[in-house]
Amino acid sequence: MNESDEAVDWQGAAIACDGCAHFAALAQGRCRLRHACVHDRYARRIDRFFDWNRELANHYVSHPHFEVRAIAAKHASVFLLTALLDDPEETVRWNAARRVPKRLMLKLRNDPHREVRIRVVALLDEAELIPMMGDADYYVRLVIARRVAPSLLMRMIDDSEPEVRRVVARRMPKEWLPRMASDPEASVRVEIAQRLPPGLLLRLRGDEDWRVRYEVASRIAAEDMGALACDSDGFVSEMARSRMANVADHTEERSR
After folding, report:
1. Domain tally for the chain?
2. Of 52, 115, 116, 255, whose CB neighbour count within 10 A is largest?
3. Could you report the per-residue pLDDT of 56-104, keeping only the tens digit for each?
4. What are phi and psi of 184, to 5 degrees?
5. What is the spatial distance between Cα 147 and Cα 186, in angstroms, rounded to a whole number?
6. How many CB atoms lie within 10 A of CB 99?
7. CA torsion angle for 10, 11, 16, 19 (degrees, to 10)?
8. Which spans in the chain are helix H?
9. What domain range includes position 250?
10. In a domain, 123, yes or no
11. Which residues contact 121 (CB under 8 A, 6 or more apart)?
12. Is residue 203 part of a domain?
């Protein structure tokens, strides 16, 4: 059934304005059935009700329907939100966390729901994220790796998730890159190769992945190509021979 055709509460019972505690608000244009109603099952209608009646939010932070509690948390007094940080529903905890003082938000670094922890990452300072670098969920760690200062990323170079290590390799200070040059994941080594200065790329000349060798062949000095000119991968050998030929041509021109 289309949402606009329904006027039922979160338990499926029909809603009637008669007898509602907010019946007076109807005449004042501060609520409307199927549009702005705190008793409705649809979150957008509940949200609209509190947008029109923010002063009533305090009365609904303990409502049995989690959508009501979650939306009320966006408008209720900050002094009522501490208890909601332990709410059984993650949506309620998150909406409360966005408005409480930072010292109270810190407890949600260990929230059982990954979505809460992911959102908390966006609100905390870098130093406060350090304990979360070992989070059990890889995506939490990925968001942290994208957000913290590059100088803090040394703590994450051995992360168990290759995608996290790729972000670390992409952002960490260049002087630390050699520490990751032997990473077991080829995609991480590609990131390293793209950032290493030519002089340090030689150590990757014999890498087992052609993408790494191609990056090496495209940037090291032509006289250091060695076996790359005869590489088993056509793209790598072509790049190596092309660069060696260019150097030879330039040398010939200078000698004329």
Report:
1. 1
2. 116
3. 999 999 999 999 999 999 999 999 999 999 999 999 999 999 999 999 9
4. -70, -15
5. 24
6. 16
7. -100
8. 23-27, 43-52, 66-72, 90-97, 102-105, 114-121, 126-129, 138-147, 162-171, 186-195, 210-217, 234-255
9. 212-256
10. no
11. 129, 132, 140, 143, 144, 147
12. no
